[in-house]
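Hi all, posting the design record for the shared folder.

TITLE: backbone redesign
STEP: 1 of 1
STRUCTURE INPUT:
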């Protein structure tokens, strides 16, 4: 997501910058990751030399031997190892960057084309209602249509077929300026059709609020390839999961005091999933949707705001949704509007919705093959602004590690390791309820350790009374154990060639005085040329002994984003106009060893040269320490450029590698004005032709494998 993605364009109201956490309650005094990197780089060339561990040879030096496995990653086949004859080679030429907010199409390499598959408002079940291009669909219709702001997704083959499966798509947010349509005033300025109180900015139309809640969540869509193109079908498995879908909690926080509400006095049930951003998957064929910026939806009028809410940046207005504004409407059921205001109003947690914020920020497991199944929020995996839940290498007889980023500036990288080993012959479908949650601590020498967020730790016992509290307030627990603050951890992905884990760190401009205000140790005199970090970078780590449950790891920087024209001090990877990038966000290794990088540029020099994009590289083919540098940067190629004002996010390859599914999120985003175009339709985003987030199916015109 972009830094301004959560602005709802409500005149005169709060417009918080995306990615900000509370300035007063981040009490971790450990050194932020950017300072660790700089200290390390100042002593030696970490990107071109070998890294040394106390035990001897370092995993990312020239002596690295790639690992392969007979076990795929979540059902996907493993990559080809380190044999140069088996390393994938990209077959396309890098496409030219295209910039401009009015750009109303995409750019692909020669010989490629795309089909529009699932734009916002596509009827997928029930009466299959058609999308009204002026935004006038009702809440009931939206419940039967795909939602807005497509994000993470995954493809689940049906009966092992290459040409038929379930595409599960997250819907993160929406642009309030045109979600309900808009009109133009006498000056040609867009006026949103959302009905609000002119004094308070609170919504007044309950049907519009229901429609907004219905647009969030997840779509499960059955698709089939027929005559070379994918089409939506329906044999009874299509489904919408929204902000009002019944949920259950499992794991240590389930049925605990921290989840008690008026709706669920026992703390066992909840309603809905929101701000669904990154995704994960399991080898037992379930989907993991990740709740990111829930802070923008729940509010509180408390003064002072308690630490448990303040540390998650919950404020009195959020992102401006304020769905509680229609509380008391005759259509309200069991406080489904009132619950978004978490101000205590009763005698205890079971009398009001003071704990409703604790119902969000989890990993939610969905069985895509059971259209009537109840989604489960797996609390053992921790609560924060989740960006993905990517499994590491999955092997029989070993536990599974799931890697997660907390997408805020100066937040942490986490992993969850299952207590049970994976048994493909007798799958335990509740493996995510028992295990250990860790936060990462990085050291300057290229090593790191995982800090167990476990109530058995005396430091955590001094603050929390139960493991339920530890996982619910994972940020506070990680603060106490001095995890390393990072530059907005986003998606992770696992290299099928080596088992190494890569993380996108999107950016961080909260430096110097800002960081000191948050009590995050940061030396404003640090000789850091990437301070502030406006462009982001990609980190790579490897578990000691390649063990999922390892408590130590080694790491280095794989690539630095930067404008092509910047100095070597900033453009450390030697990027050119053919591959400059910023704001790395989505990240995906396909089974052949190709790593795909999706961007969310934000406002910077790269955005002035190209709209958001999709790039590809094969790390196993880089040679040496396999980091991206000026000698091998041409191996990173731009494959796709999106329309103006979009984010490129969400990606998965079909099992036969002949289709690449990607999402174009919020094309033509308004930024307080009228939409700049109407992608995927042609036009300039006029009130009767709104832009729509869209899933694209990219294919080669000769029907060959994508990219190779």
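Okay, here is what came back for every position:
SEQUENCE:
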């Amino acid at each position: 997501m972009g830094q301004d993605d959560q602005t709802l364009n409500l005149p005169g109201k709060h417009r918080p910058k995306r990615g900000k956490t509370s300035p007063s309650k981040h009490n971790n005094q450990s050194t932020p990751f950017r300072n660790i990197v700089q200290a390390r780089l100042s002593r030696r060339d970490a990107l071109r030399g070998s890294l040394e561990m106390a035990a001897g040879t370092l995993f990312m030096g020239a002596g690295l031997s790639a690992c392969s496995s007979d076990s795929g990653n979540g059902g996907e086949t493993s990559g080809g190892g380190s044999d140069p004859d088996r390393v994938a080679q990209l077959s396309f030429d890098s496409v030219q960057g295209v910039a401009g907010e009015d750009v109303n199409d995409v750019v692909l390499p020669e010989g490629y084309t795309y089909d529009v598959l699932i734009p916002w408002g596509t009827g997928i079940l029930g009466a299959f209602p058609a999308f009204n291009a002026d935004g006038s669909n009702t809440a009931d219709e939206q419940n039967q249509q795909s939602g807005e702001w497509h994000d993470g997704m995954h493809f689940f083959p049906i009966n092992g077929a290459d040409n038929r499966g379930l595409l599960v798509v997250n819907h993160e947010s929406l642009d309030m300026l045109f979600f309900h349509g808009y009109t133009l005033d006498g000056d040609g300025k867009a006026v949103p059709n959302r009905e609000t109180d002119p004094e308070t900015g609170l919504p007044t139309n309950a049907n519009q609020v229901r429609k907004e809640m219905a647009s969030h969540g997840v779509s499960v869509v059955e698709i089939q390839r027929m005559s070379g193109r994918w089409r939506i079908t329906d044999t009874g498995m299509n489904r919408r999961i929204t902000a009002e879908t019944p949920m259950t909690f499992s794991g240590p926080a389930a049925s605990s005091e921290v989840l008690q509400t008026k709706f669920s006095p026992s703390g066992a049930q909840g309603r809905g999933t929101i701000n669904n951003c990154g995704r994960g998957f399991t080898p037992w064929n379930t989907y993991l949707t990740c709740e990111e910026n829930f802070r923008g939806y729940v509010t509180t009028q408390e003064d002072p705001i308690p630490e448990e809410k303040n540390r998650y940046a919950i404020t009195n207005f959020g992102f401006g949704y304020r769905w509680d504004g229609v509380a008391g409407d005759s259509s309200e059921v069991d406080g489904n509007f009132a619950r978004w205001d978490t101000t205590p109003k009763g005698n205890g947690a079971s009398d009001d919705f003071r704990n409703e914020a604790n119902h969000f920020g989890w990993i939610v497991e969905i069985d895509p093959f059971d259209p009537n199944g109840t989604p489960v929020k797996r609390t053992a995996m921790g609560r924060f602004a989740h960006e993905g839940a990517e499994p590491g290498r999955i092997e029989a007889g070993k536990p599974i590690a799931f890697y997660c980023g907390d997408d805020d500036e100066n937040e942490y990288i986490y992993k969850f390791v299952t207590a049970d080993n994976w048994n493909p012959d007798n799958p335990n479908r509740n493996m995510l309820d028992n295990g250990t949650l860790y936060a990462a601590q990085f050291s300057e020498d290229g090593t790191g350790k995982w800090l167990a967020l476990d109530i058995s730790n005396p430091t955590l016992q001094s603050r929390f009374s139960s493991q339920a509290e530890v996982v619910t307030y994972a940020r506070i627990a990680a603060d106490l154990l001095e995890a390393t603050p990072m530059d907005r951890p986003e998606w992770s992905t696992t290299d099928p060639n080596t088992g190494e884990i890569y993380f996108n760190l999107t950016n961080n401009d909260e430096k110097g005085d800002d960081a000191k205000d948050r009590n995050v140790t940061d030396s404003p005199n640090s000789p850091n040329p990437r301070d502030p970090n406006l462009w982001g970078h990609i980190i790579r780590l490897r578990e000691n002994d390649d063990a999922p449950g390892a408590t130590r790891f080694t790491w280095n920087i794989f690539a630095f984003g930067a404008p092509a024209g910047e100095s070597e001090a900033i453009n450390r990877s030697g990027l050119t106009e053919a591959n400059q990038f910023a704001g790395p966000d989505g990240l995906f290794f396909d089974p052949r060893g190709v790593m795909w990088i999706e961007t969310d540029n934000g406002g910077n020099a790269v955005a002035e040269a190209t709209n958001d994009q999709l790039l590809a590289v094969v790390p196993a083919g880089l040679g040496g320490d396999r980091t991206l540098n000026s000698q091998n940067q041409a191996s990173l190629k731009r494959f796709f450029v999106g329309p103006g004002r979009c984010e490129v996010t969400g990606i998965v390859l079909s099992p036969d590698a002949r289709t690449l599914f990607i999402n174009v999120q919020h094309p033509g985003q308004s930024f307080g004005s009228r939409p700049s175009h109407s992608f995927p339709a042609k036009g300039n985003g006029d009130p009767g032709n709104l832009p729509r987030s869209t899933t694209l199916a990219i294919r080669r015109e000769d029907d060959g494998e994508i990219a190779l």
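COMMENT: The first strand starts at residue 112 and ends at 119.
Let me know if anyone wants the other runs.
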